[in-house]
Design goal:
Number of strands: 9
Structural class: alpha/beta
CATH topology: Rossmann fold
Shape: globular
CATH class: Alpha Beta
Order of helices and strands: EEHEHEHEHEEEHEH
Radius of gyration: 19 Å
Helix content: 25-40%
C-alpha cells in the first residue's frame, strides 16, 4: 500500500506503533469542497522550528504548516534545536519528546534555563574534567524571544505526561496524530 510502519518501545513502559498510509478519497467525494473553517484567521506567518526525528512525521507536519502559510525549519534532535536557536529567531518550537542525542524535555529545560539566565546556561559535561577547563561547559544559546513558545507534539499520552511536559517548561501538549484544528488553535494561542 506504499505506506510505512515504525515502533517506539521502552521496556516496562510500553510501545507506540506508527502506521502511515497514503490513502485518497473515493472519486465520489474528491470533487466536494473542503471545509476551511479551521483555517488560521490571524493571517500571521510564523517561523516555526519543528523538532522531529521521524521522517514519516516530519514531512506531513511540515507540509501542513507550510500550507497554512508558515515557514518551517527542521531539527532531528534536541541538540540541533539548541544549535539552530543560536543562528535563527523562531516564533515557536514544536517539540517531539522522544528523539536521539537529546530528547525534547531536556532541550526544553536547557532553553528555559538560558532564558532565565539571560541567554547562557552552563552545565558540566563530565565529572572527569578539571575545574577551569573551558571544554567542561556547554553553552546554551541566547533566545531573542524572551520566552519562546514550546509545544510538545508526542505520542506519549499516559497519565501525568502532560503535567511532566508543562513542568519541564513547555507551554502546551498535543498528542499525535495532531489534528490541524488543534495545532492552529495552539499556534494562535501562544504565537500572537
Amino acid at each position: 500500500m506504499n505506506g510505512s510502519i515504525s515502533v517506539e518501545s521502552t521496556p516496562g513502559e510500553g510501545s507506540t506503533f506508527y502506521i502511515s498510509l497514503p490513502l485518497g478519497l473515493p472519486e465520489q467525494y474528491a470533487s466536494e469542497p473542503v471545509d476551511t473553517a479551521a483555517k488560521d484567521t490571524s493571517g500571521s506567518k510564523l517561523r516555526i522550528l519543528l523538532a522531529e526525528d521521524d521522517p514519516s512525521n516530519q514531512m506531513p507536519m511540515k507540509l501542513l504548516l507550510e500550507k497554512s502559510g508558515h515557514e518551517v525549519s527542521l531539527a532531528e534532535d534536541g541538540q540541533q534545536v539548541l544549535d539552530m536557536l543560536k543562528e535563527q529567531d523562531f516564533d515557536c518550537i514544536l517539540m517531539d519528546i522522544h528523539m536521539p542525542v537529546m530528547d525534547g524535555v531536556e532541550a526544553t529545560q536547557r532553553i528555559r534555563n538560558a532564558e532565565r539566565e539571560g541567554g547562557v546556561a552552563r552545565e558540566r559535561l563530565s565529572d572527569g574534567e578539571t575545574e577551569g577547563s573551558e571544554s567542561q561547559y556547554t553553552r546554551v544559546p541566547e533566545s531573542p524571544n524572551p520566552r519562546i513558545p514550546i509545544i510538545a507534539l508526542t505520542a506519549y499520552a499516559m497519565d501525568g505526561d502532560r503535567e511532566r511536559f508543562l513542568e519541564a517548561g513547555m507551554n502546551d501538549y498535543l498528542a499525535k496524530p495532531v489534528h490541524k484544528e488543534d495545532l492552529e488553535r495552539a499556534l494562535n494561542k501562544y504565537c500572537e
